[in-house]
Design a protein that fits this description.
- Strand 1 and strand 2 form a beta hairpin.
- The protein has helices at 2-13, 22-40, 46-53, 56-69, 93-110, 115-119, 124-150, 163-175, 178-188, 195-217, 220-227, 232-248, 254-287, 292-297, 304-319, 332-349, 360-384, 388-399, 405-412, 417-445; strands at 76-80, 86-90.
- It is an all-alpha fold.
- 44% of the residues are buried.
- It has 20 helices and two strands.
- Helix 19 packs across helix 20 (417-445).
Amino acid sequence: MIYIYRLFHWLLDFEKPIFTNDTIIFGVLMLSLGLIFFTSSKKTGFWASFYKIIPALFMAYMLPAILTTLGIIAPEWTTINSTGEIVEHHSNLYYVASRYLLPAALVLMTLSLDLKAVFSLGPKALIMFFTGTIGIIIGGPIAIIIISYFSPEVVGGAGPDAVWRGLATLAGSWIGGGANQTAMLEVYGFNQKLYGGMVFVDIVVANIWMALLLIGIGKTKIIDKWLKADTSAIEALKEKVSKFSEEVERNPSVSDMIIIAAIAFGTVSFSHFGAGYLSTYFKHFINGMESQTLKNSLTFLGSSFFWMISIATIIAILLSFTKARNYEGAGASKFGSVFIYILVATIGMKMDLSLIFNNFGLVAIGMVWMSIHALLLIGVAKLIRAPYFFLAVGSQANVGGAASAPIVASAFHPSLATVGVLLAVVGYAVGTLGAIITAELMRIVS
């Protein structure tokens, strides 16, 4: 028996990645980023041609995903201890990047913000955001109808096991975020033993879509030309910020860098402090409500992540009206960009490409669903001549939320990161209501 136990121990342990220490994993991710930036800096030869097609930001996302797929690193894994119990492990790098580096990046990239110029971008940003929301709402039921023709069992189930109940949690995530997703799990009582499958679909489909958006960023001019988009307001904003950066540019001293770090992480500290109190207060406040519908709609107000991002953004906007904005000349947004790339690498690490072939039926629903979302965005963008920037950021503000919308926005220009955050906050507000409408439509067609 002992030999059988050792055999199973080895087999399960084989699933453990090569590197499990976060310090080592972080080093591997940084080496990956270093390799990407070293090769992307080449002006001639193979790499120059390669990065004309594939953006460096996409590679910063994809290379960690490849490392995870090969079993070199992993976001989570299981082992067996000496007593034969299965022990779950996970990396904390994404948590650190999203809770510490993301708000720091938002502050540093918003210091040089010209709020008036942002508002001059016009209503197309909101139009594309709500188009993305509608795409998710109608995409769910249409996807169920299409997949039911080919594989009815995939969209079946009864009671708590009904697939549409699980897909309701996806709608919550893809319109709002994690808090809205959890609300949908509670509202529709999906079997929590099957919930992991929906989280899996969320990760796979949302990450594939984000990868495609990042590839599109490298083709922005071609896409905008096809859309016949008016990009003058975006270009004017970029030019205004770039001109300001040139005017205040200086060789940063140690004092400058320390003050930049103080502004960034001081804001992170205050954001976490305020988020702790506000999320706790609103949790108690919401729990005291009599209307269950209202409770579910306001669940996001009990999320500390929502408040952390909101407080950091508000502080950043306020600082942009002070002399702190002059630290852009010392490279504030460049430091913010470094933090964003680290966040991108940790997001990429969560994606195991081989999982696409597992649970293929549910993934197919997600793919069809996301395709409808994408087609509607493209159609409306073509109709109103909206730039690709609004399409990409409007979509990610829905599907990715505050963690990835600023990533996509900053890929166009660091000064645009705030647009992604502001739209993502709107997503949190409408996420639960939109998800309920989606769920009811899916229930009808099921």
